């Protein structure tokens, strides 16, 4: 027998007689350091063990979809930055993708490459942040998080020098991108990407083999592949359960088929697998970026026929989706020929990945619940919209 | 205690100063003044030590985390004087005192008020029996070790009072964790010290420190940590001391990522600062005991360094221990409560018990010389190292880094 016996799955005691005492209902959030924003979990505890968990959200609801339906297509673009505020480049791109599908606009080659460069840099930002926050949930006093932030800030500096804003980039346009990076910018970005594996190696040497990390995450928050597929879970959380589903491969979004990269898959679907998926995906993103910097073509970054102001797509509907760092991010648009979309709908991966939180947490302790939540990777801007 | 005139002036200075002040008072009052002076000295020295520990912790953690830490606070009216932020603790104290003291309407008013008072009072008691120097021992008790642990354990009671009295669910969970942690770690903590009591044959901290005097060839000190059983005991003591003082990776009662601030959730202002103070007093006192029991107390590490006064050696070692604890805090992840108790009962307690037998073997074979002395070392080391690896293998059985496949 192991001293730290394998973290078991749900072992919820059904009977609660007077000998076992009462259940304790704790409302964790919306003001709580580890709910990653204004998320709230109403947990029912038996001692420290979770017997019931109800996710409550909506505290950050700001009517995103309705506002977008009352404004022009272009005006919504900066507003999509605020959905997943850690990954504005990919939310921009997903929205641009949907509009381009609706209007049938072409995108020049250089813009396609730039989009992939921005998306993969965003993936590095998101995953390094997530891993840092996960360690904070596990009880380190900020040390791994701040080292992750050091790398993140370098990439955000690049974003700022290119688009004018660190996080709210507002970079993509229908039919291309807004700003063309200079050769100096590309050289700086390329150097940063080449150095990134050093950071990952350092991080992994210090943390991945740590016995406390292994005992806290392996076997915690198991998610079976069948359940994950049924609930529509996507992204690294789904791949940690062993399902090979990456929209970059499945849809071949943009120019992704031109790049060599692999999709890591987990076997256990537990928190440790979800952590490792992020680390391995960052290594693959570095490979994509290195290829992109080598083969970036010259040329225009906007389709010359693109018309941003007074943009009126013909009546119809379109669904554009993208492998965002958190999963399948989709925009569904219905146009009636007017300057505003008649219907604007976001498929937020954060919200849909949250739906099985209770199933993952049952039978684990309250300390595990915050770690499981951290490994799902949610951003409340996207969950509540 | 009488001061030997052959000692250096610095060694005798604190006592000469005390006797000089006491001499001004009438003989009937001298005993009272004597004790009040000792209490004042402890409160001042360790109050300041606490203040500078907080700034040291913030600065050192900042350096470990690739940032600068507090570096702005200086002195009022002396704006040009740069003090590297060293006056930060005093600014913090002023802030804590001037903040509003919020007591929840549904809290148990008495318990909520008493908890911070009780915790500070009990965490200070331990200092009474620590020998801070050759002649600097506030109270010479024959059963000093027993007294120290009795006083130290009472602080957990205050944590439970705070958790229960706050009428907050996070505080309640923290209180339950604190009790589980107390029951689990008190045992290995005491068991790690018992071998020293067995070998030295005394419970008095003064005699334990004295027993570690002397050097082999003038450079190798006879501290208990340099014996196999002493080294094992010291490691067990360190782990248990971390858990007893609720420090990372055993800071479960105030796990900020799970329980917001645990038992401190409903405390604000100066009451919060008192808890903070008590945590550091407890940590300092436990480090002081560890130094006394394992690290030679106030003894110098080499004969030629004896000219440095003993109380400076003690404070130096104390600072070293505190820095070590801060380093641990900046590095490790937190355990879960079930893993925490399991670590105590299934790993530390068996090891500590074995180590007790080891110390008995050491005491019995004290007459072995020549090649037998080497055998004594080998056997003693084997008694702790072999179980350590056997139990340690069990500790991580079933957990290993994994390799991952990639989609075709």
Short description:
The complex is a heterodimer of chains A (385) and B (408). Chain A is α+β, with helices and mostly antiparallel strands. Chain A is built from 15 helices and 9 strands.
- Global morphology of chain B: globular
- Class computed from helices, strands and strand pairing of chain B: mainly alpha
Order of helices and strands of chain A: EEEHHHHHEEHHHHHEHEEEHHHH
Distance between the termini of chain A: 48 Å
Oligomer: heterodimer
Shape of chain A: globular
> Could you report the average pLDDT of chain A, rounded to the nearest whole number?
87
Total separate domains of chain B: 1
Q: Mean pLDDT score of chain B, rounded? A: 85
Report on the biggest sheet of chain A.
Answer: 3 strands, antiparallel
Largest interface: A-B, 55 and 51 residues
Molecular structure report:
The complex is a heterodimer of chains A (385) and B (408). In chain A, the strands form three sheets. In chain A, strands 1-2-3 form a three-stranded antiparallel beta sheet. A three-stranded antiparallel beta sheet of chain A has the order 7-8-9. The longest helix of chain A has 29 residues, at 109-137. Chain A is globular. In chain A, a hairpin with a 2-residue loop joins strand 4 (172-173) and strand 5. Chain A contains 15 helices and nine strands. Helix content of chain A is 46%, strand content 13%. Chain A has helices at 64-69, 73-80, 88-103, 109-137, 143-163, 183-207, 211-217, 225-230, 236-240, 247-250, 271-295, 349-354, 357-361, 366-376, 380-384; strands spanning 24-28, 40-46, 49-56, 172-173, 176-177, 264-265, 316-324, 327-335, 341-347. Chain A has a single domain, classed as Cytochrome-c3 Hydrogenase, chain B, CATH 1.10.645. In chain B, 63% of the residues lie in helices and 1% in strands. Chain B has 13 helices and three strands, in the order H-H-H-H-H-H-H-E-E-H-H-H-H-H-H-E. In chain B, a hairpin with a 3-residue loop joins strand 1 (215-216) and strand 2. In chain B, helix 5 packs antiparallel against helix 6 and helix 8 packs antiparallel against helix 12. The longest helix of chain B has 35 residues, at 30-64. Chains A and B meet through helix 4, helix 5, helix 7, strand 6 and helix 11 of A and helix 6, helix 9, helix 11, helix 12 and helix 13 of B. Strand 6 of chain A pairs antiparallel with strand 3 of chain B, so a sheet runs across the interface.
């Amino acid at each position: 027998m192991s001293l730290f016996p394998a973290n078991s799955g749900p072992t919820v005691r059904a009977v609660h007689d007077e000998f076992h005492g009462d259940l304790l209902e704790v409302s964790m959030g919306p003001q709580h350091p580890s709910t990653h924003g204004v998320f709230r979990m109403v947990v029912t505890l038996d001692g420290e063990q979770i017997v019931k968990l109800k996710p409550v959200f909506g505290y950050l609801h700001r009517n995103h979809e309705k506002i977008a339906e009352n404004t022009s297509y272009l005006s919504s673009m900066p507003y999509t930055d605020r959905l997943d505020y850690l990954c504005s480049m990919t939310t921009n791109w997903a929205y641009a993708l949907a509009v381009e599908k609706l209007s049938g606009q072409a995108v020049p080659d250089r813009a396609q490459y730039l989009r992939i460069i921005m998306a993969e840099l965003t993936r590095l930002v998101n995953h390094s942040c997530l891993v840092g926050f996960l360690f904070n949930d596990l009880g380190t006093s900020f040390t791994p998080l701040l080292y992750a932030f050091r790398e993140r800030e370098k990439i955000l500096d690049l974003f700022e020098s290119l688009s004018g804003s660190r996080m709210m980039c507002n970079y993509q346009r229908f039919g291309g991108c807004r700003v063309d990076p200079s050769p100096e910018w590309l050289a700086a970005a390329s150097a940063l990407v080449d150095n990134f594996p050093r950071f990952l190696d350092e991080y992994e040497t210090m943390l991945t083999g740590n016995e406390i990390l292994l005992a806290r995450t392996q076997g915690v928050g198991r998610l079976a592949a069948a359940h994950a597929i049924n609930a529509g879970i996507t992204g690294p959380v789904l791949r940690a359960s062993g399902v090979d589903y990456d929209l970059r491969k499945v849809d071949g979004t943009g120019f992704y088929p031109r790049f060599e990269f692999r999709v890591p898959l987990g076997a256990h679907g537990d928190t440790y697998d979800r952590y490792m998926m992020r680390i391995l995906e960052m290594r693959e993103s570095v490979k994509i970026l290195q290829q992109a910097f080598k083969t970036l073509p010259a040329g225009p970054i906007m389709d010359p026929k693109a018309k941003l102001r007074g943009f009126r797509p013909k009546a119809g509907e379109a669904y554009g989706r993208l492998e965002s760092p958190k999963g399948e991010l989709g925009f569904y648009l219905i146009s009636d020929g007017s300057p505003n979309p008649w219907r604007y709908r976001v498929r937020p991966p954060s919200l849909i990945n949250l739906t099985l939180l209770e199933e993952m947490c049952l039978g684990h302790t309250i300390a595990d619940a915050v770690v499981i939540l951290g490994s799902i990777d949610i951003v409340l801007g996207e969950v509540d919209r | 205690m009488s001061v030997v005139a052959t000692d250096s002036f610095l060694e005798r200075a604190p006592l000469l100063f005390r006797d000089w002040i006491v001499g001004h008072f009438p003989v009937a009052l001298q005993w009272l003044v004597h004790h009040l002076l000792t209490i004042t000295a402890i409160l001042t020295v360790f109050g300041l030590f606490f203040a500078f520990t907080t700034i040291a912790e913030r600065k050192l953690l900042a350096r470990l985390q690739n940032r600068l830490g507090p570096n702005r606070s200086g002195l009022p009216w002396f704006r040009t004087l740069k003090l590297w932020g060293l006056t930060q603790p005093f600014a913090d104290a002023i802030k804590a005192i001037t903040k509003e003291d919020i007591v929840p309407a549904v809290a148990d008013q008495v318990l909520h008020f008493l908890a911070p008072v009780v915790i500070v009072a009990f965490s200070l008691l331990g200092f009474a029996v620590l020998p801070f120097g050759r002649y600097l021992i506030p109270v010479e008790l024959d059963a000093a070790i027993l007294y120290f642990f009795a006083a130290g354990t009472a602080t957990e009671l205050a944590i439970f009072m705070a958790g229960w009295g706050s009428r907050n669910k996070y505080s309640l969970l923290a209180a339950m964790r604190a009790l589980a942690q107390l029951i689990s770690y008190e045992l290995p903590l005491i068991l790690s010290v018992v071998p020293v009591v067995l070998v030295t044959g005394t419970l008095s901290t003064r005699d334990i420190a004295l027993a570690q005097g002397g050097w082999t060839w003038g450079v190798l000190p006879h501290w208990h940590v340099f014996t196999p059983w002493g080294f094992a005991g010291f490691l067990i003591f360190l782990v248990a001391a971390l858990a007893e003082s609720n420090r990372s990776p055993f800071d479960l009662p105030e796990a900020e990522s799970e329980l917001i601030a645990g038992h401190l959730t409903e405390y604000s202002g100066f009451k919060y600062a008192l808890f903070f103070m008590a945590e550091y007093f407890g940590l300092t006192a436990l480090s002081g005991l560890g130094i006394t029991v394992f690290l030679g107390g106030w003894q110098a590490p080499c004969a030629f360094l004896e000219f440095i006064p003993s109380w400076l050696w003690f404070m130096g070692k104390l600072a070293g221990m505190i820095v070590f604890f801060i380093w641990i805090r900046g590095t490790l992840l937190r355990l879960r409560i079930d893993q925490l108790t399991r670590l105590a009962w299934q790993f530390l307690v068996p090891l500590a018990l074995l180590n007790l037998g080891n110390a008995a073997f050491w005491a019995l074979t004290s007459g072995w010389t020549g090649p037998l002395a080497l055998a004594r070392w080998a056997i003693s080391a084997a008694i702790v190292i072999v179980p350590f690896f056997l139990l340690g293998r069990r500790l991580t059985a079933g957990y290993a880094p994994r390799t991952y496949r990639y989609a075709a």
